[in-house]
Amino acid sequence: MGFLRKLFGKSKVKQVRTESELSFQKGLDEREDTTEIGKPVVRGRTTTSLQGQVKLLEERLNTPETRSTPPRHIEVIRKLADNYLKLGEEDFGYYIKAENLYKQFNVLYPLHMEKIDWIVWIEVSAKAKLIREARRLLEEARMLFPGDIEFDEIESRVLHITESS
Fold this sequence. Notes:
This protein is mostly helical. Helix content is 73%, strand content 0%. It is built from ten helices and no strands.
C-alpha cells in the first residue's frame, strides 16, 4: 500500500515548500517596489583614488600572472605610466618613474610600442628634465615613423619645456 501513498500523497519537496516561509521572496518584492524598472542597481563599487590605483597597478606589475601574458603586462605598464604622468603634476618624482617604465617597456616589448607610446615617452622624458634623452628618442621615433607631423608638435613642446626650465 506504500505505492498508493506515493501516488496520492505529497512529495517531500512539495511538503517542504508548502511549510516553508519564503522570506527572501518578500525581500525581493519589497526591492522591486523601491527600484525603477530597467534601471540597474549598483552596489559596493567605490571610486579609488589615483594613489590607490597606482598602488594596485604596482602590485600587479611584476606578478607571474601578469608577466606570463604580454598583452596584460603591456596594459598594466601603460595604465601605470599614465597614472604616473597624472601624478607627476603634483610630485616631480613620478615623471622619472614613468620614464623608467617606458624604458622597461622598450626593452621587454620593443615591437609592441605604438606611436602614442613613443609620443608619451618623449613627453615624459622632457618633463623629467632628461632633455638629451628626449631628443634622442625623438630622432629614433622619426626613423620609425618618417614624415609624421605629431613628432614636430612634440618637438615644439619639448623645446618649450627646455626654454621654461
